[in-house]
């Protein structure tokens, strides 16, 4: 079988992704961020076009079930801008949902993930290319264990990668214990997000040694105090031989953070962060982090 990345326009070879923003959001809405919903399709198109102008080739949207993915809009945006888009299934932390939504998913969560990966997200027919779940702050509560267990089941049924929101960058090793140790998910099918928010170089290295992909995604207004540590963290991992495990993303989650509204938005990743990292790590490694690594992380021999 051939490894492919499942985009909203169909499966593509990993080498066709181009420069990849490995964690971002074109659409997103949560009761935890009232008034900052990403709902405007025109603004999403402008962000993608600006990213394309900076040399971007693909964006992986980590917006999961029930948080305003607008899957039906993603194919047109991808065609209009020439940027590959990968959609997600999965479930975020419990605080992002009402009790009724969670109750409806009891007993069928893994089946929901599998359906969205194989037949499509609702009537849109757009197939997801990854499963996004989330941990808690330095711990895994019952909701996290439920969603991660379902994600593991869906992985075993489809081969899909599992991307994990680490709350403030913490809990990486607990996540790997559950997904890989208890549930049998191969570590290279796990992507740990937000590691830049907790610059614990020892934990970073342990997660890399376990075989997971490590995503550093920002800048972050809420976690800006750690943004400046990112080059050091990436350098330490590269020098330890884990440059092939690194991913970079923007994680735009609010309307105010979009470039069209005066924020950094999708273009910042390539316009400002890429040159900064090239100074610290060298152009060759940064180029591979943006192109080769996402293909390995999101490329799957789909079942």
From TrEMBL:
Keywords tagged on the record: Hydrolase, Metal-binding
Modified-residue entries (N6-carboxylysine), positions: 132
One matching Pfam family: PTE
Cofactor note: Binds 2 divalent metal cations per subunit.
Cofactor(s) needed for function: a divalent metal cation
Binding site for Zn(2+) 1: 23, 25, 132, 251
GO molecular function: hydrolase activity; zinc ion binding
Key word Metal-binding present: yes
Chain sites annotated for binding Zn(2+) 2: 132, 165, 194
Family membership noted in the UniProt record: Belongs to the metallo-dependent hydrolases superfamily. Phosphotriesterase family.
The protein, known as: Phosphotriesterase
Upper taxonomic lineage: Bacteria, Bacillati, Actinomycetota, Actinomycetes, Kitasatosporales
